[in-house]
Design a protein that fits this description.
Length: 459
């Protein structure tokens, strides 16, 4: 059994082989948009962390490339080490264009743009150093005329630097435009889509500088930027730089022309995919034992129910699978796994520590873990009632060795509901009591397994 879920690889020859979230239609629609939209254009693909933006972006990039549209992909997170985003951009573009540009006209235009971009980068550092140094000089110890000379020199440097940089920016933009659109001297490369992934994971200053470079230096006909981001998280980055009261939403609107909200995935399909991709299906079939196969079916159903009830991100679901795998492969084959309560306790340990610790203490302190069952596994979904009944019964069985008197009171209450409650409550109470009689949960074994996860750092 694999311990880590392998990343989805997008095959350029068969782009949608790994499309388990059924996003082909959305990719096809955006491909048409990006192939025909007026440029320059900045499109953002907005979705929370762990919603599958990277795979979506790679499928869109591959589909555009297959349609013969020039497209380059790079991860902002992986270029976050660069001193300036323009440096990362030039480097990524140089790698791509060295393969794409065939004619001498396009190559010359790119070399001129690259040279101007390099000079822009070089000029940013000396001016900043001089301005910073002036602040460290003790002017009280400098003669008045020398101070005036120094201030004048610094002012001239700043003004000259501004003029020179403006000229360099014009040269940079003009040669990028020539490379893309062409002139009478030669045919251009055509429109170019630049995919920027994981912008929201970058350090705040880098993310903001990248947006500003895109807007001010790369707002050029023929260029399309596609940014994958979590707008909420990126707004936090903006406020980290400009202050908590800064209008981050208004600021981001200045840089993005169109925002596309990534559609919610089908979580049932995604859980099925993870079961298969992580060898759960093969594991639960391997022994041939009926009980183990039933455990597998129950775990799949409970995971789907939990994912939908709590609207878990794809990344959160993957992490839950990773924790379950650690427990499964460390559980001897001759010991029962108890998938429903195990999954429930792993979830509580992560998202409601108070309820989990109450379960560990036991007795009346475990009441919260029972009360939360219908909140964690919402009614209204198929199999929700069954999951609630199993977990309720297993909590009682687990606690019977900790505090038998408390469990006895719980059983008496269920018996009362079985005879006096409404029809649905009567059925629920009857099933919990039946399952309690069959259950063989051992609380210490269960707690040791879940506590073992504390020793692992899930990435």
């Amino acid at each position: 059994m694999r311990l880590k879920t392998p990343p989805v690889k997008v095959n350029p020859d068969s782009i949608y082989d790994g499309d388990r979230l059924r996003r082909k239609e959305h990719v096809d629609n955006l491909t048409v948009l990006l192939s025909n939209a007026e440029t320059p254009l900045v499109l953002s693909i907005n979705a929370p962390w762990g919603a599958g933006k990277t795979t979506f972006l790679k499928m869109l990039h591959a589909n555009l490339t297959a349609q013969k549209t020039n497209a380059v992909y790079f991860s902002a997170w992986e270029t976050d080490f660069a001193a300036d985003p323009l440096l990362a951009f030039l480097g990524e573009m140089n790698t791509f264009l060295s393969r794409q540009l065939q004619d001498h006209f396009g190559k010359r235009a790119w070399e001129k743009a690259k040279s101007a971009g390099g000079q822009i980068l070089k000029r940013l550092v000396p001016v900043a150093v001089k301005v910073g140094t002036a602040g460290a000089i003790d002017l009280d110890k400098v003669l008045e005329d020398e101070a005036s000379t120094l201030a004048g020199a610094l002012s001239n440097d700043i003004i000259d630097g501004y003029v020179k940089n403006k000229e360099l920016v014009d040269v940079f933009k003009e040669n990028i435009r020539k490379m893309l659109m062409g002139t009478e001297e030669g045919e251009g490369l055509g429109r170019l889509c630049i995919f920027v992934d994981e912008l929201d994971r970058c350090r705040p200053t880098y993310a903001i500088e990248l947006l500003e470079r895109i807007k001010h230096l790369l707002d050029i006909p023929g260029l399309i930027f596609v940014l994958a981001l979590d707008k909420t998280q990126l707004a936090h980055s903006v406020k980290a730089v400009y202050g908590a009261d800064f209008d981050a939403a208004g600021y981001l609107k200045r840089f993005i022309d169109i925002e596309y909200g990534l559609p919610d995935p089908d979580l049932d399909v995604f859980v099925d995919y993870l079961f298969e991709r992580n060898d759960f299906e093969a594991y639960f079939r391997s022994s041939g034992a009926h009980d183990l196969q039933r455990d597998g079916q129950s775990l799949r159903s409970s995971m789907q129910l939990l994912a939908k009830s709590q609207r878990l991100s794809l990344r959160s679901i993957e992490q839950l699978f990773a924790r379950l795998k650690l427990l499964i492969i460390s559980t001897p084959a001759n010991q029962p796994f108890h998938p429903d309560i195990t999954l429930y306790l792993i979830y509580l340990k992560e998202y409601d520590r108070l309820a989990y610790e109450g379960f560990v203490v036991g007795g009346s302190e475990a009441q919260r873990s029972i009360d939360l069952i219908p909140e964690v596994f919402h009614s209204g979904y198929e199999s929700s009632e069954m999951a609630q009944q199993f977990i309720h019964a297993e909590i009682l069985k687990a606690q019977s060795s900790n505090d038998p008197e408390w469990v006895k009171l719980q059983a008496e209450q269920l018996k009362k509901e079985k005879s006096e409650g409404d029809e649905l409550r009567q059925y629920y109470a009857r099933r919990v009591l039946q399952l309690y009689g069959y259950s063989r949960v051992r609380i210490q074994t269960l707690i040791r397994r879940v506590e073992m996860l504390e020793n692992f750092q899930m990435q």
